[in-house]
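#onboarding

Welcome to the new folks! Below is a worked example of what a typical request in this channel looks like: someone posts a single protein sequence, and someone else replies with the predicted structure as tokens. Don't worry about understanding the tokens yet, we'll cover that in week two.

Example request:
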Amino acid sequence: MSEQARQGRAVRWAVPVAALAVVAGAIGAGPVIAAVQGDPALPERTAEQLLASAVQASRGGLKPMSGTVVQTASLGLPGLPDVAGMSGSSPAALLAGSHELKVWYGGEGKVRFALPGRMSETNLIMNGDQVWMWQSDVNKATRIKVGEAKDAGSLGHGGPADGAARKALPTATTPQQLAQQLLEKAGDDTAISVTNTEKVADRAAYQLLFAPKDASSLVKEVKVALDAETFVPLRIQVYARSAAEPAFEVGFTSVTFSPPAAENFAFTPPAGAKVEETSLGELAELAEERGTRQGEEHKGKARIIGKGWTTVAMIPASELGKPTSAPRSEAPQDAAGQDADAIADAMLKSAKPISGAWGSGKVVQTKLVSALLTDDGRLLVGAVTPQKLAEVAGQR
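Example response:
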């Protein structure tokens, strides 16, 4: 693949990848606590107490449990192509529709994700130093070498197993993973309140509400439901200012806080299955080919302007190249790359012209994210209004 083609592919990935990351990183530090009155169904707790309990629960390690998580996205992407046929494990699948994920945590070193698809299922099974990925649609079992048993037990703590899960199942997102980013960062640009009458997956729950104060944010509020007994996050809902229903939601529809049966973590390749072996390093290379690593590299080199809910990421022209003239690669793409390209192309086709003292370009706005591609090659992305992006574009 030529360098110019790589740059073009990176641009097509840049918008959807940035859209996934921008809301999760929107909150700063130093909470402002507000109270919500009502008929309590649970003992009253302040938002500050709940924040402390939730953070403590997240630092205490994974609790034995099992359940089903449903993720729903309605981001209002303009001109979105039919996503029904998208791979359930594609990062682009995060941007639309509903997706189900089954999870089992059996204590240290015992984790399983199952991602159902159309007439298929992808499983990631970790049992000590035995890690397998099973893809029923291609009848293939892949053993992943993790080096040491402790690596497999590091899921949820930022270790190598976390990376393996993200590379194998990009849509395997749980409420705990998203909530941990939110609960440890709550800024003075945020009003925080609490209700104690929620019920999620048939369990009583407290609900924390995070609302940005700045009107240039496209986010109206983020709701985090915490299990009343364990303080484990059960559901995350992100509301846009322009919609009454959540633009993004991930939450348990069923959950049990008890050790799963041992057979959930046992795996033997079925007779006739193709068996392969790989390693965490090889998975990282695969992620790079898909474009995931390219998106992460751009994120690391992006200039971050502002803070909290109105943070804007600006990727300079030197990283983007010339997206309007860069040809596509002639090399075959995997399903993930094709899905991302289709979404990025649809967004670019619906872009509207915008100009100002800073220059001119094209802007796309969804319910939660705006993206501005300037004629001089810069990409600005944030959970903010197009007017805010134009203002930031003038800050050279």
